[in-house]
Write a structure and sequence with these properties.
- By secondary structure, the chain is mainly beta.
- The protein is built from four helices and 33 strands.
- The longest helix is centred in the N-terminal third of the chain and has 16 residues.
Length: 494
């Protein structure tokens, strides 16, 4: 089942927008300590032991990699289609795909990872984490070598293993690519070892970076170094940015009062790949709100869910915006369900389709005029789903995650978005300013920290006024791109 990677909902006046978060096969293997090993961190600061894995001893000064614990329990072979894409941590999905591509290997198996082809201040820790993840996905007692290990050294350190899986990581355009080669080793100590030039099997996979991987990379600053404007519709009330077609080519989805479009910004214009008119999708609502509220969810490579308070029904659309069906309520809110109009705002959610379950409990949200949702991966590789909503009377925004953690983000405008902008495993709330003066508006970025505090980190003035917000995936190790629908079109900041 494909994961919905983000949702964007909003209103003009009560405008809102987006949340984008990208992210295994099975659960994380339990690691048993085996002699003098170094247990890599699965969370917290690189190089520290995670709370769910036993700490190891000091690093081995000999220069020969120590063997990390065997991955357990053994895992059966899985077809590559069983590996998720965007529904789990990048590292677990990468390991799943490599293991699927390798198939069954002669046991025992040793896994080693080399240094990252790109700057990584915690190279050894990242290589160890990769080796452990791949070994866990391979199962059958596969073991991992500690540190960033060359192929030659890995072969010398494989001991009595019959197979060595050598993994080469590469960082490019905001993605981690892993290339794996399986070498069949001699079964007898006197027999010659395998040649480094001949691999029995090869596999590769790539994923966008997330908060688990971000802890091993250079720290990303929350700062804007470039802006771009594009002519587009001025009635946009909801905005999303994501991989609509499943080809890893992020696109913008705009929800206006008259039409929906999907396309890209460039050369000062928004070029639509597909568009459709609301008049052909849903009748006018019997009692539309004075200020429209819109919502849009991108289900990667599968469909788009969209709604508008001006219209009677929310709709499911294909990746080319062809109608697929109607939703049970007008406005989709990812991880929650669909919202209906009530009075001058939006009421309690219900499933968008029969049998669908809510992931985040928003029973405390009643009578709201803006909302957002997102998914991020924390430093331990856990996927966290988070939502935000605004109460119109107080103008205060509330945050809640799927574990029930809540926080108040204070007073904000009615354009909202959620994403981990700097890959530190903590979500950022992007919000407009609560003002009636467009010249005083801005994109305000605040981090919801592990200590529960919501702290403002960045403020980017948008003097044309913000109607809706979205977050696009970064194409490098830098802050994710922000997109605002304004009174003059679309505005990108990165």
């Amino acid at each position: 089942m494909r994961a919905a990677q983000f949702a964007a909902l909003g209103a003009r006046g009560p405008a809102f927008a987006v949340a984008l978060m990208l992210f295994a096969c099975g659960g994380r293997a339990h690691i048993e300590p085996l002699g003098p090993t170094v247990a890599p961190s699965a969370g917290g600061s690189p190089g520290t032991a995670a709370s769910d894995e036993p700490p190891g001893t000091a690093p081995n000064p000999s220069g020969v990699p120590t063997t990390l614990p065997s991955a357990a329990p053994p895992a059966p072979d899985k077809p590559r289609s069983a590996c998720t894409h965007g529904g789990a941590s990048a590292l677990s999905e990468l390991a799943c795909e490599l293991a699927s591509g390798m198939g069954s290997l002669p046991a025992p198996v040793t896994v080693a990872a080399g240094p990252l082809a790109g700057a990584a201040p915690h190279d050894a820790e990242l290589a160890t984490r990769i080796a452990i993840s791949v070994a866990a996905a391979l199962g059958s007692g596969a073991r991992a070598l500690n540190g960033a290990v060359s192929l030659e050294l890995a072969m010398r350190s494989a001991g009595t293993s019959r197979t060595l899986v050598d993994v080469s990581p590469e960082l490019a355009r905001g993605r981690l690519r892993l290339s794996a080669a399986a070498y069949l080793l001699a079964s007898a100590p006197s027999a010659p070892r395998a040649s480094a030039d001949v691999a029995a099997r090869r596999a590769e996979a790539s994923r966008r970076l997330d908060g688990e991987l971000g802890q091993y990379l250079p720290k990303i600053a929350l700062a804007v170094t470039r802006t771009e404007r594009a002519a587009a519709g001025t009635d946009i009330v909801a905005l999303a940015c994501g991989d609509v077609t499943g080809k890893d080519e992020p696109e913008l989805v705009t929800v206006g009062r008259r039409r929906l479009q999907v396309g890209r910004m460039g050369d000062g214009h928004f070029t639509a790949r597909a568009e459709t008119a609301w008049a052909s999708l849903s009748p006018v609502a019997p009692s539309p709100l004075r200020e429209p509220i819109g919502g849009v969810v991108v289900v990667t490579g599968d469909r788009v869910l969209a709604g508008l308070s001006d219209r009677a029904d929310g709709v499911a659309l294909s990746t080319s915006l062809a109608p697929l069906g109607r939703l049970e309520a007008p406005l989709p809110w990812e991880h929650v369900g669909c919202l209906s109009r009530t009075g001058t705002a939006l009421g309690a959610p219900r499933p968008c389709t029969r049998g669908a379950a809510s992931v985040v409990d928003v029973s405390a949200a009643d009578g709201i005029d803006a909302f957002a949702s997102g998914m991020f991966v924390d430093v331990k590789g856990k996927v966290v789903r988070v939502v935000a909503w605004r109460t119109p009377r107080s103008r205060e925004v509330t945050l809640r995650d799927d574990a029930g953690r809540m926080a108040s983000a204070g007073v904000a405008g009615s354009a909202l978005a959620l994403a981990d902008l700097d890959l530190d495993g903590q979500p950022e709330l992007v919000a407009s300013v609560d003002t009636d003066d467009p010249a005083a508006d801005a994109m305000v970025v605040s981090t919801w920290g592990r200590d529960g505090a919501v702290t403002e980190r960045l403020r980017v003035p948008v003097k044309e006024g913000v109607h809706a917000l979205a977050v696009c995936p970064a194409d490098d190790v830098r802050m994710a791109r922000l997109v605002a629908a304004t009174g003059g079109g679309l505005w990108l900041a990165e």
